[in-house]
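Annotated sample (chain length 106).
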Amino acid sequence: MQLLLEKLKLRAYSYGTGDGMNSSETNGGFQPSAFMDSFGKIYFPTVDGVAVVSSTKADVNEVSPPVYIENVRSNEAVYTGEENITIPYNTPYLQIQYTALNFTDP
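Output written by the structure step:
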């Protein structure tokens, strides 16, 4: 059973007015808050009508975006990537600021 669960993947998409929705605010106050028909279309109630998404025609970007590490903060120190760093395992504060570059929807 564990091996089967490891092979399952869930893809999440976020749609809004830029994708053609009249409103990006949904009305999911009652169950079920979405419906899928036999053709794979999913219907979502919104505050400005019903939004329909085709689950069979969703664009999938298989390319992982390159990641750029902007800086690393550890306690009081800030590392900008210019130097190699070693951070002790018991450091109570660690923050990594990064950007994942993706140009599929400029």
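Annotation: The mean pLDDT is 79.
Annotation: Strands lie at 35-36, 41-46, 49-54, 67-74, 77-79, 94-100.
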